[in-house]
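ok here's Villin-1-like isoform X1, seq below lol
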Amino acid sequence: MRILRNRRQAGEWVSTSVYSTTSSTSCSSSGHSCDSPTEPAFRHVGRHSTGFHVWRVEHLQVVTVPRDQWGTFHDGDSYLLFASSERDQPAGPHTRAREVRGAPLEQHVHVWVGGAAGPDESGAAAYKASELDEALGGRCVLHRELQGFESTRFLAYFKHVGIRVLKGSVSSVGAAEPSASLAALAGGSRLFRVSGRPGRRCPVVTELPSVAWRHFSSGGVFIVSTPHALMLWMGRYAAAAERLQAAQVAAAMRDEGQPRALVLVDEGREVLLPADKFSLMTEALDPRRAALEVHHSPPPSHGAHGLDALDLERAKDRPRVTLYHCADKDDTCMVTEVKSGPLDHSDLSHSDSYIVDRGSVGVWVWLGRLVGERDRVEAMRNAQGFVRKKGYAAHTPITRVTDGCEPAEFRCLFRTWHAAAPVAKSSKTKAKSATTVHTRLDALALRDSPRLAADLRLLDDGSGDARLWRVSRAGLVGVAARRAGRLHSGECYVLHYRYGHPPQHAIFYWLGRTSSGERQATAALWASEKGREVADESGCEAIIVRVLEDREPPSLRAIFKGRLAVLSGEAPPGDDSSSGLPASFLLRVDGSQTYDTRSVQVPRRPSSLRSSSVFVLRSKRAGWFLWCGRSSTGDEREMAKRVATSAGGADLIVVYEGQEKDDFWVALGGPSLAVEEYAVEAKEIEEDSAGHQDTRPARLYACLGASSSAFAVEELPNVSQEELCPDEILILDARDTIFVWIGRNASREARQKATNLAIEYLKTDPASRELDTTIVLLRQGHEPPMFTGFFNSWDPHMWNDYQSFDEVRANLEGRPIPNLSQQSQADLPCIREFEDQDKFPLQLLLDPDISHLPHTVDVFRKELHLTHSDFMSVFGMDYPTFAQLPLWRQHSLKKTAGLF
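and the structure came out like this:
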């Protein structure tokens, strides 16, 4: 592919040669020798300092934006934003400027281009961004942000204050600086759209061209601001998250400046407002024109609730990743496809530049540390040319990263990513924790150190009470204590573990590699049933852990005290009370602690041996042997002895690699000549065991459309407890473990699909993840330390003051705040049943021809598909009250309304 560098357009990234300034000559030709930026506005930015800064481009000059105006933008202007923090740590307005030595920094430069900004302003901003990057060593991450399509990282900076996009340009408005106060937006009548969504904690308030009904739509939430009142208008298909964020924005606008009335209006209820509120609305709009002029967008398509067209497109492109090599020749960038995913770190060369293409999700440019100056200068323009050549939308995200300074969201695109220096790693390291602990572990230590629990993936030290069942066609069959820990590859098991004070519960379901799909599905159902039993009996929500053979987490291994053994085949009939061991077998034992040790039955032949492990051999005739590979450690040998003892091996013959006698080889099933076969096999295994340490941090994602057939995720750049919203389901990706956090207000359908959400996440990961990764389901308020330890701080009382939209609305309208905790247990399922149904316009549901109705409508219970406001209008009561009426009365009301 040939990319010509053509004439600039609005939002086009430019090279430093486009603008000729004296400041640019003070840097060396390499662009990496300046200790501080040369632009006067950048003088407070240090190469080795953390900090956060915002600048605006005015008359092609960079002007510092005061702190109290951060988050306010004008659509006719372009802005620069700089964020610097320690690597993989959050940054934002709260970041303090301080010098950091001895730790790598992660520095991001964002160029925000307003929708009405001209090419000169956007070009100047891009040039200044390049100048800032060069002065800081050329290692910043450069982002192009277009209005309305900002990256999640950019929005995360302003999650506490939101973003306000006002009309026009500061330079055209006048010399007066724009105020960041929301109350300052009250001058005259103005219309704003509030954009919010699940997973996005930053509401975006955008001023619209005029106050007119034609700018309203059924899928949005809008605020009309007049000198005397604020009107919050909510479309019938607006997402719950958008309503909540808009209500919070409206409350903030009301509370700042002069007191004003706040009126909440549901679509279709404009003319039914009380006289005083109706009068306030007429200051800006004629309520009687709403039904005629509002853009009545169709209801969300089935299976796409909470997702717009761009979300669906990006969800489709999420698994996609393609690597292209870039080479500059005769003022033309030659782009050649290298491979389609999955990608590995080794695919990148230090002396080259590449484009990582993810379609609508975004385009990345990667620069090796040895590339030439021209490649660095033209990288962003090449990427923009690539986007145009591929026919992608102009708003496709473009980000440039440099060798050694890649942010976490780039590193996660690769199947493997290693530190600068290789780290020796045996094949059994995958099953071990990344943290080595030399001190004694107990339940109290893990409870008091959540970070340690998270690093080790431990619930406790395994000192709790466990009960194990095998899944059979007839149900669950209890496994005797003497056999606990001996699992068969052709079976599935359910384990209930009770631990801690006060008691906590975990339900594990273990799926053997050769077990049937039917039995695995049954195990999942039984695990859910056991979880419900725990909740009914104790009031405590158990965590549910899906475990596949060979991927047993330390939390499960610890329960068996290092005695977990996986045997081949199915359990013999009626064998659950016996030892369950075959007469002759070979076990490979991996691990050096009680929480990381497992053993697995391997073929009883010399080629199964490897120098990095310890093996337990039992021969019906020759007895018990403990074979120790030359690379095994003393701790590993001690754990192997424990495994052998628990299996009944009282008189062990210890054999060291290279000192075997003929009786050992005979017991292993072959003559001494088999040593040659073993030596070749062991050498190949050892050569494959070298690797690199994966340094990627845990990452947090919000699930979009979790209650529908569509699935998308949006990354939340900061792994913070504040991101865990009670209305949502979130995924914490810890590489070897996927945690699914279920908010207490999440929909019933989303809760039921939690495991499938995690599996779908793994399937669509561009890094080609393994589907046997451990999945942990946990509910809000019942998080174990091995989850909370991933967060810098954890406050179990943080959600005490959380208010749902209904509670916020009641508070704004001066009504008693509804308290669902005071509802009867019979009412709660009724409320959830109504809330979980697809909603449609009343006129559509009144159509007597059922063939015209969407296929998701229950034609016998059309009332469930009314919006709350329509239901109140038709029946004069809410749904829980309606549901308590006798059936004959319900039918009578439905007939009167035309819904029967």
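fwiw Residues 365 and 400 are 5 Å apart (CA to CA). kinda neat tbh
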